From TrEMBL:
Keyword terms: Calcium, Metal-binding
UniProt key word Metal-binding: yes
Protein name in UniProt: EFCB6 protein
Gene encoding the protein: Efcab6
Pfam families, A to Z: EF-hand_7
Species, as recorded: Casuarius casuarius
One GO cellular component term noted in the UniProt record for this chain: nucleoplasm
Sequence ranges assigned to domain EF-hand in this UniProt record: 149-209
Any one GO molecular-function label of the UniProt entry: calcium ion binding
Matching InterPro entries: EF-hand-dom_pair (IPR011992), EF_Hand_1_Ca_BS (IPR018247), EF_hand_dom (IPR002048), EFCB6 (IPR052603)
Cell wall biogenesis/degradation is among the record's keywords: no
């Protein structure tokens, strides 16, 4: 009942969350080739388009795609992604955590590849379901060509600020056959250009796809 589960809110937000990284790392390997189908099935069950589905339905999908979670791992990960404590699993946040890397990571591939952090720290906008969907759609293409793409970004960035204006940013993506719809571009800009500067940090953008 809501009354009995209410006092657990604090525990749900702290304890299990800290312990989920090993589980997500394990899932990341399992999910690598099937996350698009997982996302599609989750979206089909998400009638209200809220980015969440009942925990039981997510567990059915996890079993179908052989994510191979123990009972303890299921408890931890469902507690972490039941943000509203309402028995719903925030599948969009879960998938972006496994596939995209929007938070800085100390030992990320990008730091090993010496992609420098921007002089101005990223102050991101909202992480909407539409933003995740757009980023997830283009992720395979970005992974395939991020090194030459980064060189092209830099060639457009004559003043070496790490920032490109929106037309140049979009032009570089087009050069690599990544064509964003107007809506997808809007959702990506809403995240990376929260201050409406009409500039986007291409390193922050690339960093999200690589780990």
């Amino acid at each position: 009942t809501p009354a009995s589960s209410h006092p657990q809110t604090t525990a749900a937000c702290s304890g299990p969350v800290l312990n989920c990284e090993p589980i997500e790392n394990k899932i990341r390997k399992n999910i690598k080739h099937s996350w698009r189908r997982i996302l599609k099935e989750c979206k089909e069950k998400d009638v209200s388009k809220q980015g969440e589905i009942p925990v039981s339905e997510f567990l059915d999908i996890a079993e179908k795609f052989k994510l191979d979670l123990s009972e303890e791992e299921v408890n931890q990960i469902t507690t972490k992604y039941d943000f509203k404590n309402n028995g719903k699993f925030a599948y969009c946040d879960f998938l972006q955590s496994c596939i995209l890397f929007l938070k800085p990571q100390e030992t990320s591939l990008l730091q090993r590849m010496i992609i420098q952090k921007p002089q101005i720290p990223l102050s991101p906008g909202p992480q909407t379901t539409s933003f995740f969907s757009a980023m997830l759609r283009i992720q395979p293409q970005i992974l395939h060509c991020w090194r030459p793409m980064r060189r092209t970004f830099k060639s457009y960035d004559e003043s070496r600020t790490g920032l490109l204006n929106i037309p140049d940013f979009r032009q570089v993506l087009r050069e690599y056959s990544i064509n964003l719809t107007e809506e997808e571009l809007f959702n990506i800009l809403e995240y990376y250009d929260k201050t409406l500067s009409s500039k986007i940090s291409y390193n922050d953008f690339l960093r999200a796809f690589l780990q």
